[in-house]
Amino acid sequence: MIPLLFLENYAPVLKGIHGGLGIISLFALAFGVYLIIRRAKIDWSSGLKASLAGIWAYILTFILGLLIYPVFRIKVRAEYFDLKLPWLTGLFEIKEYVTAIGFFVALVLLGYYYFFRIGEAEKPIKQSFINLLFILFLITLFSAFTGYLLSFYKTI
Amino acid sequence: MEEQSIKSEQNLLTKSCRIFSFLNFFLMLAIFILVFSNLIGINLPKYYPLLYVWSILPLKGPSMGFFSAVGFAVSLALPLSLIFYLAAPYLQKYLEIRFKTFKNLSTAFVIVGIFYFIAKEWKEWGIEKTGLADSRFFNAEMLFFLIILGLFLIFFALLLILEKKIFE
Quick one: which of A62, A64, A35 has its CA closest to A140? Predict the structure, then answer.
């Protein structure tokens, strides 16, 4: 008899919010990167706002992912993926660590927003901001794809 | 709100330079600690969800080391970065830090960190545990290595194209 796990009763709801916020993050970051690449001044401003929403959504998604991880670890990974589909465990492990790196990137991007006026900042700040934002967008895209692939096979 | 500009080609240490280098130093250090602790297998506390306990000693049942790995990386990187921030004016005297270097280094750390985990985890779960490992030269591991190398180069090229498109 498996004891009740941490937040097990709330896990399906939290997982739904986790997925929803992940999608918001993905679209906001995609929109932000697109507008910033277009380079028009008005786009920069809107792009920065969209990106900020995407970064916050990413951080919340990451925290919710941590909260539902114990249930996923037992009910999905240990009971199913590890035994029958180890390559999916591999994908999950990659997603886990890559999103942790994305979390560090998101914290640094928030620091850029807080300390600098990115729109008017000098070239190194802008370049660094865009590099990290683009990487965060790719990480979110990969995580969303992996998350939905995992859910397709088994979910909490 | 900090408004001073970064003068990357000069040896002036503005507050912006310090903040910029502090943020990038934190990112590099956090990724380095995450990768290095995984690589050498530092024995951090693990959470045992079936037992509701944290333990450094191995216990029975599935365990989770991810929480500790992330917490360890952040909790070590943050104070060390603050020390770096405070020490930057002294370091600048002797090392003549070029602050533009931080931008390239932090991007490189992020990419290397990502590909380290892709290579490590897929080798274990996607090749070894699925029984694809064998002794031939052009085996699943070699193929995977080539795919990873290709992805790495594409990733890097995308970043360079992006930078070029925006700033030239």
Answer: A62
Domain borders along chain A are 8-153
Q: Cα–Cα distances in Å, from B127 out to A88, A97, A149, B40, B146? A: 12, 18, 19, 21, 14
Residue A145 contacts B, CB cutoff 8 Å:
no
The structure's pTM equals 0.91
Cβ–Cβ of A6/B102 closer than 8 Å? no
A151 contact B CB<8A = no
Model confidence pLDDT, tens digit, residues B89-142: 888 777 777 777 888 899 889 999 998 999 899 888 888 888 877 777 677 777
CA A67/CA A51 separation, integer angstroms: 24
Q: Do B6 and A125 touch (CB under 8 A)?
A: yes
Residue B71 and residue B34: Cα distance in Å, rounded? 9
What residue ranges do the domains of chain B occupy? 10-97, 98-168
Tokens describing residue B102 = 């931080």
ipTM over 0.90: yes
Measured in angstroms, the CA of B108 and the nearest CA of chain A are apart by: 10
Distance, in Å, from the CA atom of A107 to the CA atom of A128, rounded to the nearest integer, reads 14
